[in-house]
Amino acid sequence: MIPINCFAAETRLIFAWQPSPARSNCPMPTPKKAATPKNALSKPVQPDAALAAVVGKDPLPRTELTKRLWEYVRKHELQDPKDKRSIRADEKLLAVFNGKKVVSMFEMTKLVNGHLV
Length: 117
What we know:
Elements: H1 4-16, E1 44-45, H2 49-55, E2 60-61, H3 62-75, E3 86-88, H4 91-96, E4 102-104, H5 105-113
Antiparallel strand pairs: 1-2, 3-4
């Protein structure tokens, strides 16, 4: 049976021990700086005239451009009530959708990319 006092003394010695600075061959790692996002979604893009009529003429990141496009669709109730994946085009969106009257939400992003300068 090990006395409790003996065990406590051993743990204090273990935790108190530190290697000497002369023996340390491995340098401390330098903290890394936070990386700035450099993806294509955060870079501003310029919409052409047809798309500018819907989202505005100022350069926007793609994420903000998509948000404004969806705001326009919801405001003007252009989403098909039976099939929510379909977007019905009004006169402004006909130019963006290359003359198609109904497009899917997935096809919409493809067509919008063609109208970025």
